[in-house]
Amino acid sequence: MFRQHLYVHAAQGERDFRWRGHEISRIEGLTDGVFALAIALLVISMEVPRTFDELAEAFVQTPVFLACFATLFWCWHAHFQFHRRYGLENPLTLFLNGVLIFLVALYVYPLKFLFGLLWNGMILRRGFNVLDSYGNPVLDGEGRHIPAVGEIGDHLDLMTLYGLGFAAVFGIFFLMTLHAWAWRERLELDARERVLTKAGLWAHAISVGFGAGSALIAGFARDPLMAGCLYFGIGPLQTVNGIYWDRRVGRLRPAVERAEELADDPVGGS
User: Fold this and answer.
1) What is the DSSP annotation of 60-112?
2) What is the pLDDT of residues 137-177, one digit of tens each?
3) pLDDT confidence of 2, banded at 50, 70, 90?
4) Residue among 160, 126, 162 nearest 146 (CA)
5) What whole-number distance in Å separates Cα of residue 79 and Cα of residue 103?
6) What is the distance between the alpha carbons of residues 200 and 262, in angstroms, rounded to a whole number?
7) N or C: more exposed end of the chain, with fewer CB within 10 A?
């Protein structure tokens, strides 16, 4: 009986968290549609290649699409995990979900613009200019490059815009998880689930902190390079955060699983 219980958890995707949301709700369906539309907009904005050189250039730009896709998938997974874990659909959850949908739809093009600018300008060394279908800078009537981002103020505004959007999206996830924490008694979260909920709160708080920090650096320190490089710290800090909370869950796991085994088989446990 206990092994069957573990198999159910494994099939659902998490060993230490009982999923309370099983069916796809209408709000989830709508949100999935918006994420799908956002990914489609990334593809539609790319012109269909007409020559081999344009086809080759499309593959050169693949990392830009990959970075945008990975960011959107990260957000989608956080949304999916929230609804599977908690299954909340009360008015506050619906409101926060609506704000999330708005932010995702709003930041699709700024996301691609920023990653495209960084990839072409810093990695490929093509300069921060408007490029044609072959990846060459577009010239104006006087033979000068047309800048995609002009003065330093434009770079700063771009990093500020991206930082605020990044912080806002993960701020919504933080508020949604905080709302689930407030419902922990009614959701009957066990010890492991409470620890994992706290881990989620810290993970979203870290993302909010980096986004807000980048926006502040761009706005007050006036350094777009430092504002962009700050995001490289997310991975290591999120890794440390995950290891810390995973160890706490690991210490709780034997006692909780033993209690579940006794609940499933009280005669055998005695």
Assistant:
1) HTHHHHHHHHHHHHHHHHHHHHHHHHH---SHHHHHHHHHHHHHHHHTHHHHH
2) 766 666 676 666 666 667 788 889 999 999 999 999 999 99
3) very low
4) 126
5) 13
6) 29
7) C
